[in-house]
Design brief:
22% strand; 3 domains; FAD; eight-stranded mixed beta sheet; 16 helices; globular; disordered N terminus; D-Amino Acid Oxidase, Chain A, domain 2
Amino acid sequence: MSHHVPSGENHVVDLAVIGAGINGLAIARDAAARGLRVIVVDRADVGSGTSSTSSRLIHGGLKYLERYDFALVHESIRERHLLFRTAPHLVRDYPMLIPFYKGNTRPGTLIRLGLLAFDLLALGRGRGLSRTVPVRTVARRWPTLSRDGLRGAALFHDAQVPWAERLCVELFLDARRLGARVLTYTSVTGLVVEGDRVAGLRTEDVRTGARGEIRAAVTVNAAGPWIDRILDGQIESRRLNGGTKGSHVVLDPFPGAPDTCIFFEAAADGRPIFVFPWQGRYVLGSTDLTYEGDLDEVVASDTEIEYLLAETNRIFPGAGLTPSDVLWSVAGIRPLPYTSGVSDNAKISRGHTVLDHGPAYRGLLTVIGGKLTTHRALAEDVTDAALRVLGRRPRPCVTRERPLPGAETSAWPEFVRDFLRDSPLDRASSRRLLQLYGVRARRVLEIAAGDPSLAEVVDKETGALAAEVVMAVREEGAVTLADVMLRRILVGLNGDMGLNSAATCADVAVRHLGWDEDRARSEVAAYERELRRHRPRALAEAAGAGGSTGGGVGGSRGSGRTA
């Protein structure tokens, strides 16, 4: 896979997409499936920006009923239903309890009515009807939940994508298979503006400095929170992005931690927040703050962390959480439309708009807004708009029914049963492979079977195999160690953010992928630098102890157990 446009080489395509987040990748997939020639460029890895900082929930749109945004609710319900079918390995039913407390700005009666309306809108496309839970049942089933002012609760069924990063990777794989070219670590240095037309973009390889140009009939600015930066100094435009900052924290199980998601109203500001189980740990989130700072330096603040811990301690009186309990945090900017004079950020639309800059700048589209759940619908809208700009007849969209690569089986439950029966790994490791790769889990085992050293475990906590590192680079477009750890094999999202396995994974790259020792050491150091924005406790502890986090590269050869 080439990751840059070679110097002096001009590419001519129908569609050039700026941004390889979930929306940009979905656009590339949809457009390529409809026969367009597509190139996507991103200055970093696929899904490495906003797409990896969400709450990892596939919302059916319950929250949007509060703003009477029925169109977005309908779209969210439909897209959630489609994801259950096209990505069953990545998206799963996720029940959540909504407790009602005295003094809430949203009384229980209002929430019950909202749930009833939602169930009617989702009829035939949900995973169970909502139901009221009386106080005594809450006390029995969720005994650690505060009963101070409790007026009852409701159990609601939504969906979760535990590994949003893998959703991006699978969109990338399918887009590439359909003919799209994805150029990671390729920055956009400018738009090609010729009179009243945008005719493409200029690029520079982030790693080598090589420059190139992409000529495109239509250019799509899908850079999320960075859309204004792409346009700045290039074309005249009003401010388009007004994204708000959302932060989460990750913790180990704590005293009184629930076994289901709790979706409750914060006492401090009335914002709905979550406490939810995630891969054996818990996520608290999120905040929703106006943000005018550097989009490349977004970090969860002490104030946000204290806010999330205080609200969790209030709802779970026995938790006793302090900042020292936080394993790591994550913060990102929601790509919301700029809206002046809004006192409550929750009132800013979570829908998306496709802005055609013509006739002043023909051939340029900018995507404003968008969210994880509705990425496919957004892509369909963008491709429709691009076809109109191209003056071509409408072409049918196929992504509503097209499964993602990890779901290419006519019978997912049967595949799971057969894989668990035949896998040489223990059951927990086999299930992990299924949850990350779906039917492509068999490819991991094939690679491991071809070389006994690739059956070694590179991360004790997760049981990840060396074969996954090799597949990440050779077949899934990973370039750096961070790409491998954080967005492919995902050991970077364990308790210590993969700090103890980074050198081991880099050593696999030395032995099997052509890295030399200098490259490996450099990649481990770069990985630790990338982690600093997450404020991992393990990194701070290692720095305080004055020791190394992961050992020297080359010293871990053969240290893992075999499958």
